[in-house]
Model the fold of this input.
Amino acid sequence: MDYAMWLGPAQTRPFNSSRFHFNFRWFWDYAGGLMTDWGVHLLDYGLLGMKAEAPKTIAALGGNFAYPDLYEETPDTLTTLYEFDKFNLVWDHAMGIDNGSYGRDHGIAYIGNNGTLVLSRQGWEVIEEKQGKNKVSKPWAAVADNGLENHMANFISVVRSRKMEELRCSVQEASHVATVAQMGNISLRSGERLSWDREAGKFTDGKVNKKYLMKEYHNGYRLPSI
Done:
């Protein structure tokens, strides 16, 4: 393989298999760990489902607790609290365990006054709130098809047809979800509870913007202006 091409604009370092295929996601030079790796696959349920814009504030804490001796930089354990206008969103990940919230290894939960909707790629259920006025419990219902395959088929279909109105997830929506995921990492790395200026499209802390909003390009690469 062409290692220089693989590095692209990332900082040049001696080849290390721990930074190579799959494991590259645990290093800031190339990725954002589980916060961005799985965040874009789960945060979208909450953000798009709630029709949410960018959060007002972001606060994160975490560290390398599950595998403290593993050669990695990104946190294996992380909790991020996002404050929105009418609700809060909590991101929580922990490597080394498969029994997460609600007894599942991944998923999201909408917690409401009358019940909690728990869903993942495999299915969904509604857990009744004991003090809720409406009885809304629903046992686990497995999905009948493969949403990931449907998503890919939809994308390819729109590439061929050019009918953008048929696209289930736009580039703008994908960018929005990825941005929110990156906010969690930036809060952790900066050690700050951050506020986001929606109009300006950046944090209110200038030092954080300068250090984290744009990666430094290496090896002759540059971000083109369009």
